[in-house]
Amino acid sequence: MKTITRKEFIEQVGLGAAVLFLATCAGSCKKTSTGPASVNFTLDVSSGALATNGGYLIQSGVIVARTSMGSFVAVSATCTHAGGTLGFSGSNTFVCPLHGATFNTGGAVISGPTSTALQKYNTALSGNSLHVYS
Ligand code: FES
Fold first, then answer.
1. What DSSP designation does 116 have?
2. Residue 50: closest CA among 118, 132, 133, 106
3. In this predicted model, what pLDDT tens digit does every residue of 13-55 receive, in sequence order?
4. Residue 129 Cα, ligand 1 centroid: separation in angstroms?
5. Mutate which of 31, 76, 79 for ligand 1 pocket (most atoms within 8 A of beta carbon)
6. Atom of ligand 1 nearest to the CA of 99
């Protein structure tokens, strides 16, 4: 049987605790950032989900919505709580189906369980062409 020093024991226990913490945390810890860092795509809004107010679609990790007033907004499609994929309600609110978090059209939290806002992206409409970019 091998004996170890106090220092070796503390090092091994500390490493084991760190591994256990990471394994436990990986699936349930609060996310601090979501959404792609770089976004640059164009959508045709003359037909499909974005042709009518209240419609939305998800592309390249971004949820693009047409508000009830007809303006376009784009935020990360990934909930900042635990990674649920967001939807958009007719009341101009992004909604997470997993635990009910809601966000306004600017990506700010309306109700938790998260307190972290969504990444927001820029939109620019030219004719029927909507440019979504970071
Ligand atoms: S993943 Fe929990 S509220 Fe969205």
1. P
2. 132
3. 454 443 333 333 334 444 445 789 999 999 999 999 999 999 9
4. 32
5. 79
6. 3
Binning pLDDT at 50, 70 and 90, where does residue 90 land? confident
- Pocket-forming residues, ligand 1, beta carbon under 6 Å: 79, 81-84, 96, 98-101, 113-114
Of 51, 37, 48, the C-alpha closest to 125 is 51
What pLDDT was estimated at residue 34? 72
* Annotated domain spans of the chain: 40-133
What is the value of pTM for the model shown? Answer: 0.76
Give CA–CA dist 84/75, Å, rounded.
Answer: 14
Ligand 1 pocket test, candidate residues 81, 86, 103, 110, most atoms within 8 A of CB: 81
- Domain made up of 40-133: CATH architecture: 3-layer Sandwich (2.102)
- Yes or no: say if 30 and 70 are a contact pair by the CB < 8 Å rule: no
